[in-house]
Amino acid sequence: MTDPLVSWNDGVAKQAILDFVANVTTPNRPSFVPPGDRIAVFDNDGTLWVEQPLYVQAFFVFDRVQQLAPQYPEWQTQEPFASVLKGDLKSAMAGGESALLELVMATHAGMTTDEFAAIAKDWLSTAKHPTLRRPYPELVYQPMLELLAYLQAHDFKNFIVSGGGVEFMRACTEQIYGVPPEQVIGSSNKTQYEWRDGKPVILRLPELYFFNDKAGKPAAIQHYIGRRPLAAFGNSDGDLQMLQWTTAGSGASLGMIVRHTDGDREFAYDQGSMSSLKQALVDAEKEGWVIVDMKRDWKQVFPFEQ
Amino acid sequence: MTDPLVSWNDGVAKQAILDFVANVTTPNRPSFVPPGDRIAVFDNDGTLWVEQPLYVQAFFVFDRVQQLAPQYPEWQTQEPFASVLKGDLKSAMAGGESALLELVMATHAGMTTDEFAAIAKDWLSTAKHPTLRRPYPELVYQPMLELLAYLQAHDFKNFIVSGGGVEFMRACTEQIYGVPPEQVIGSSNKTQYEWRDGKPVILRLPELYFFNDKAGKPAAIQHYIGRRPLAAFGNSDGDLQMLQWTTAGSGASLGMIVRHTDGDREFAYDQGSMSSLKQALVDAEKEGWVIVDMKRDWKQVFPFEQ
Fold this sequence. Notes:
Two copies of one chain form a homodimer. By secondary structure, the first copy, chain A, is an alpha/beta fold. Chain A is 38% helix and 17% strand.
């Protein structure tokens, strides 16, 4: 039999996946779970694709600001837009979460959902990562693609549960992960149904509807999926509650944390500032969550490596 | 070949379903849609199961008020609770939507999601319809069960898109319709993730999060499913926008409206007051939506009929 996880080195992490899947899919084991009930949830940024030096969606925001700037002359002097237009992302981010939200709303609203999907798809197919010099959809982790496919082949429904914008992610998640739009849960804008030129449209409003992070993740899992997952994969404290909720069920479960330890092949920022990973690591041992150390556990990081 | 829609009389409605499914599932037809993209959306109350003399969930609310009353002595004199406790549902409903919302919040919040699921399941398995004298899960429409199964057999994903409470519906939708929890979209309470006795729980708060009706339905379809359905089934003006959105796509689509015309086998309240059906009927002709006349089109209404 071919190894379904060929990019994983033998070790605790790979074995934990194989054991877990055997436990829930082998009939007559007490840990067996019927196919329809097999749900797995995945964080996206830093778990399935790169999040360094910034979230992919942040680069999308900055490019959109550049693109829209001619329509908004006031942005030349108004923060955080002025810093973005000067290419000074550090200053742009100095305003923290509220500055980021302002940038997102200015660039992700005012168009229909169909128009936004086209904008996001176009950007994702053309924009390139600043240092890796490849389109972002190529910057996914090969071992995680194998894991997604392995679970799907064993009748799991894979869901993405990410802080990223749901419609931004949907512009590429089916293509790159094989996860259909209805299995993508993310942050969202408010929307409004209305008529334009004799056709119904759904308009994106410049107002946050739901921010899918931390304690919002298990609440969203219950709200959108309606049952507890068997497996959860994350890489930061933003995934802590999702890991807790997933592994607090009565049956077999798997919680996994990806650690970014490989500065040669990817980025070494373990416990770093992009998305803090502290409490989840502290809890991992007592909760039995399995650590994936990229440097140690992954034979190959990106699909394009030889 | 056995007739997949055996409880449907031959006629325009049945033929429209068969033609639509042939059009989107026959390879090489220009109207062909790949299996993964086949989404169908169904209203629940009055489309898949009875909604007369009141919504099923309203009976659940009233029974819950009776059950909880000993803990709330003030309800004996406080409306709308006092009228419910006297069995005077007409007076209880006199306060309109805000009275109903108050009743729902008083009976659907303050417990964990797991506790609520158990309460709803217990009620659904024991409570009986006031005139039909059967548990509500038996009061589903046999022709619609056949339609759900027929679409599913042709690789459609069926979603319920209803104004009913999502967690109330999920307590029975998999069992009665074969629709898993993650394919049920409804109205919802706000929730909160927290710890109780060393375990994480999701607490239901007494506050409306989303009301899934009218223009909210297409917005919810985009939000939860992320793509336009091919087929929509409803029975009231609450489904008007969902029908519009579904059939405004560029490819083949099917919009259907169930009319309650059969006072002998079910309830005759076509265009009646429970859930008004006026504008959707006016628009049906120009939009090409197909009318299902229960009296004319359904050979059998309920599964228990001989």
